[in-house]
Specification:
The complex is a heterodimer of chains A (about 350) and B (about 500). Chain A has 13 helices and two strands; from the N terminus they run ααααααββααααααα. Chain A is mainly alpha-helical. Chain A has a two-stranded antiparallel sheet with strand order 1-2.
């Protein structure tokens, strides 16, 4: 019942968000029909567009999971960006120098990239255990360190001399990950991680402890949960997911090398997706796909219509804001209506 | 009529009906008791009168005029003030500063401490409230701080003073003093609403009594000797329930918990929170801890279960020194029902099942290597729901949807089913209705029958006297007396709590 209702509310909120955004399109003197037509055409309209949407979504699924798993456990990991960058850099550098058969090297590179992200998150875990430092601030600050450290490594020691911008050399061609019917294998890896996260959160006892910690940390502590180790584990796992996202983007993206700005906004998009998804695992998948669709479709909007790319970003924000607002608005509206009905029964 | 509340209904979204067509009135210069079980709607009705929440339906009249009380500020302007159960004072300020806070006497924009202190002192004298206006507020007892709250309202010239369960945390002696003060206030023309569920107190001091039950008004009666406690109780609960706990005589077994010279020093100010505490609990024995709140009971429990490390001393359970064990390991010896069930005992947003399997989840059969066995969890949850008569739709319902009594049953069911030899109960019946209270008291005595060692902390002296085999009295972090409830009177316990000789 509550599942049906929340799905219904989500659909209603999405429709309403597009209506609100349409007003701004009109204000911009463009036709909403044309703009949304282009969005659909490039985001979902054909197999080509659809597979592109899936390919755009895989890093978002992983950074979204990274945030969701942390937040649902009451661990405020905001370091997705830094963990992502380390995953990408380590994978990109090893991808140049490592010499192994590709069937072994590709999964190995992905896992090592994930571990690099986990190690970076592990720093925050260490600070927390040793010095009681709040991971909220440490993960956030570590983002800046990661940003400049990876940039330094890509600009000096590992710079591709032929590149115009700070970038590492192209990874070995046989390490490029393939795609199946145009869908990147990385997308299926992300799907697998969705299942793994679900299994962790709902089937394992550590996952149970982590979720209880997220509901009420004192309750979990007094109940005898292994709070300290649970927190560390969640931070490491969360970091692994972000690092994996970075590594897969190198292996299966379009550039196959670490360049300045490769992290784009994947980290913060992940945090946003987790918040939209209420830290639910499958909801995270859904909203990551939704944001992927918007991003991919936005390319079409820019291409086909007169709206500039800045406006596309603006529209995206409007849609996300309205969606979240409407969803909670609808929830309190139903509560209010139920209350009215109860009162009606009472006073006739 | 000074105040008339007519046909008040309140629905909390989405569907909690708190008040159904309640009429309530106040006459000038009366003490009007509002009684009912927890969840009967007393607080809701008084929050409406003091402007904290708005009614969904109905109207309020003062002196025949219809009024809208949209906020506590409006209520104050109309002369209505409420003293809440949780006192909201600034601990570091002096008493008079707390009283005038918000509308300070000032000249040229400067605060006038001398004048303030003077005004407050006169006010206290006029109404016969015995409190040192220059004392630092946090150094006062609960009773003292309550007087500050009352002064605060008087300073704002309220005519109608609402006292929400004011005697809940007071000793018998302090309650008596409060009643004298209430009489003096009434004699000086103030109207008092006395919210309580202690029927003997209600009968002793009130002029009229209104009984609420499940959001409905049952009656308003004049307290002129025509009604007694049993009748009131029946109106409150609906059926005849008497709190009886029949304790069989039995001899205690071997010691289960032995605490030796336990001390805890506050590192920030060097204050001794626990000072050389010695106590023993035997198998098959209920040991009570009495004391005015804030005299080290909370700290004692925290140190016992392992939330805080003691500064010195030792804790022994079943002959094993557990002083250096962390909370997680200690939990294999101790079952614990915390005082604050909403913030410590439960995860309100988690399901009933998830709450019931906590701590059980650490061991087989629930835990299987990495996994949690869902079918065992379900089995355990359904069994506990049945055995402990937890009223719910399914084990997958969120705990926050349950009533207070059923929430507490979830905690107690979980802890008792852990089957530990030592059970620590901290205020297990606070805030529960009569039926749930009786149920819990029976559970405590059953634990005693099954040869468990029970340590019971309670602010309810009657409860301690009824259930305990021995009572330790705590004051300023020390155990100041060990009493046998069969041979001493409640007032004697009170004297020890206050530290005055009988």
């Amino acid at each position: 019942m509550s599942h049906v209702r929340s799905i219904f509310q989500t659909i209603l909120a999405i429709v309403f968000a597009f209506l609100v955004a349409a007003i701004f399109v009109l204000l911009h003197h463009s036709s909403p029909l044309e703009v949304y037509g282009a969005l659909y055409q490039y985001g979902l309209g054909s197999w080509f567009s659809f597979s592109n949407t899936l390919n755009a979504a895989f890093p978002l699924i992983l950074t979204g999971l990274s945030a969701s798993i942390a937040f649902m456990s009451g661990v405020v990991n905001l370091g997705q960006h830094g963990q992502f960058l380390w995953g990408a850099l380590v994978c990109a550098v090893l991808g140049v120098y490592l010499r192994l058969p590709s069937w072994l090297a590709v999964p190995l590179l992905a896992i090592i990239g994930g571990l690099a992200g986990a190690a970076w998150a592990g720093l925050a875990a260490f600070f927390k255990r040793r010095y009681r430092m709040d991971e909220f601030i440490s993960t956030l600050m570590l983002n800046f360190l990661a940003e400049y450290m990876t940039l330094y490594l890509a600009t000096y020691p590992f710079l591709d001399p032929k590149a115009y911008v700070p970038a590492t050399r192209l990874i070995r061609r046989e390490y490029f990950m393939t795609s199946v019917f145009d869908v990147n294998v990385a997308f299926f890896v992300a799907l697998f991680m969705v299942l793994l996260c679900w299994w962790f959160a709902w089937k394992t006892w550590r996952g149970y402890e982590a979720r209880m910690m997220g509901y009420n940390k004192l309750f979990a502590t007094v109940g005898g949960c292994d709070v300290e180790n649970d927190t560390t584990l969640v931070l490491l796992f969360s970091g692994f997911l972000s690092g994996l996202a970075g590594a897969l983007l190198i292996l299966n993206g379009t550039q196959h090398r670490f360049t300045k700005g490769i992290g784009a906004n994947f980290g913060w998009d992940g945090v946003m997706i987790a918040i939209m998804a209420n830290n639910g695992v499958f909801q995270t998948l859904f909203y990551a796909l939704f944001i992927g669709f918007l991003k991919n479709g936005a390319v079409g909007m820019e291409f086909e219509t007169s709206v500039p790319s800045e406006f596309v970003m603006f529209l995206q924000s409007i849609i996300v804001l309205t969606l979240v607002g409407t969803r909670s608005g609808l929830a309190s509206l139903t509560d209010w209506l139920t209350a009215k009905r109860e009162l009606g029964k009472l006073v006739k | 009529m000074l105040v008339e509340m007519i046909d008040i209904c309140k629905v909390y979204p989405p569907n909690v009906v708190a008040l159904k067509h309640v009429d309530f009135s106040l006459e000038r210069g009366e003490i009007h008791a509002l009684v009912g079980e927890n969840g009967a709607g007393k607080s809701t009705l008084m929050k409406i009168l003091s402007g904290l929440i708005r009614p969904s339906f109905g109207e309020i009249r003062m002196n025949g005029q219809r009024v809208q009380i949209n906020s506590p500020v409006v209520a104050a302007r109309l002369g209505i003030g409420m003293v809440h159960q949780e006192l909201a004072l600034v601990g570091s300020l002096r008493v008079y500063e707390n009283v005038v806070l918000g509308s300070e006497p000032s000249r040229f924009g400067l605060f006038q401490p001398q004048k303030s202190s003077q005004i407050v002192k006169q006010l206290a004298e006029r109404f016969g409230l015995n409190v040192d206006v220059n004392a630092i507020t946090q150094e006062l007892s609960v009773a003292g701080r309550q007087k500050v709250e009352i002064l605060k309202q008087l300073y704002r010239n309220v005519d109608i003073l609402i006292l929400d369960e004011p005697t809940a945390a007071l000793t018998p002696q302090e309650s008596e003093e409060l009643f004298d003060e209430m009489f003096r206030l009434r004699d000086r023309g103030k109207t008092i609403v006395f919210v309580s569920h202690k029927l003997d107190e209600v009968l002793k001091i009130s002029d009229r009594i209104t009984v609420l039950r499940k959001g409905e008004k049952i009656t308003t009666v004049k307290n002129d000797g025509s009604i007694n406690a049993a009748q009131l109780a029946e109106m409150m609960v609906g059926k005849r329930i008497e709190l009886v706990s029949i304790k069989t005589r039995r001899s205690a077994g071997d010691p289960v918990l032995v605490v030796k010279d336990l001390s805890l020093v506050d590192r920030t100010n060097g204050k001794k929170l626990l000072d050389g505490v010695n106590l023993t609990v035997h198998a098959g024995e209920v040991v009570g801890i009495a004391g005015v709140e804030g005299n080290g009971q909370n700290e004692l429990i925290e140190v016992l279960i392992g939330l805080r490390k003691p500064s010195s001393g030792s804790i022994n359970i079943l002959g094993k020194d557990v002083t250096s064990l962390d909370l997680r390991r200690r939990r294999s010896f101790i079952a614990y029902v915390p005082q604050d069930r909403k913030n410590v005992g439960l995860a309100l947003k988690a399901t009933i099942m998830e709450n019931l399997i906590m701590t059980h989840h650490m061991n087989p059969p629930l835990r299987r290597k990495w996994l949690l066995d869902k079918s065992v969890a379900k089995g355990l949850a359904s069994r506990l729901i049945k055995d402990f008569e937890i009223v719910c739709r399914s084990p997958f319902e969120k705990v926050q949807n349950l009533s207070g009594g059923n929430q507490q049953k979830v905690v107690v069911a979980r802890e008792i089913s852990l089957n530990r030899q030592l059970i620590v109960l901290d205020q297990p019946t606070r805030g529960l209705d009569v039926a749930s209270t009786q149920y819990l008291r029976d559970q405590v005595l059953m634990l005693r029958e099954s040869n468990k060692a029970v340590l019971l902390v309670s602010a309810d002296l009657d409860e301690l006297m009824d259930l305990s085999d021995r009572i330790y009295v705590m004051r300023s972090g020390r155990i100041v007396a060990e009493l046998d409830p069969r041979t001493v009177d409640k007032t004697v316990v009170g004297y020890h709590m206050l530290g005055v000789s009988a």
